[in-house]
Amino acid sequence: MDSKKQDDIAHFALLFILLKNRKKSKKRKQWCKKWLQRRNQSSDINLLRELREEPLDFLNYLRITETVYQKLLSLDSPLIIKRDTVMRKAISPHERLTATLRFLATGRSYECLKFSTRISPQSLGKIIPETSNALYKVLRKYIQFPNSEEKWKEIASSFEERWHFPHCIGAEDEEKNGIISSCACPTIGWLNQE
User: Fold this and answer.
1) Over the stretch 11-61, which tens digit does the pLDDT of each residue have?
2) CA-wise closest residue to 101 among 132, 130, 123, 122
3) Structural domain contains residue 44
4) Are residues 56 and 112 in the same domain?
5) What residues contact residue 70 under an 8 Å CB cut-off, 6+ apart?
6) pLDDT in tens, 65-96
7) Is residue 116 located within the same domain as residue 102?
8) 0.70 exceeded by pTM
9) Could you tell me if 61 and 121 lie in one domain?
10) In which domain, by residue range, is 95 found?
């Protein structure tokens, strides 16, 4: 046999092997799990409505006061709002911000957060980075970052010297950042004592 025929046979054999071993894509059994579709019935949002009556519990849950939350929501909403489609209702800015703040406050995985937010882990994987970027955009005028490596190192060394916490460049606190003055509650600083 000549080399062209051998090449053709090898190509067909390779194509046959690839087609035979190709994994068949699984068809979805359902578009979205039924319990995730009932997000408006029971989720973090309903709990937040109840926690408004207990300011310390609200603070403990999201690590910010309701006043700061409302301010963040008003600043952030234009950047994270999505439109409803024919297929489904959009996840509201309120739900997006709550999921993001809960993620930042707890460090829980997306898989774990889906149970309290009733938002799929795939959606949370898009929502949390988008909302975090939007928060950075609206809050960057309130936070000043060092512009050189020496200043970063100076901050880290003074933080380690004062707080005995190495490799840290500082901490942020709602009382000092100037976004909104702190709540008048006398026990508002209890989280800082942890």
Assistant:
1) 777 777 777 776 666 665 655 556 555 556 666 677 788 888 888 988 888
2) 132
3) yes
4) yes
5) none
6) 999 999 999 999 999 999 988 877 788 898 89
7) yes
8) no
9) yes
10) 32-141
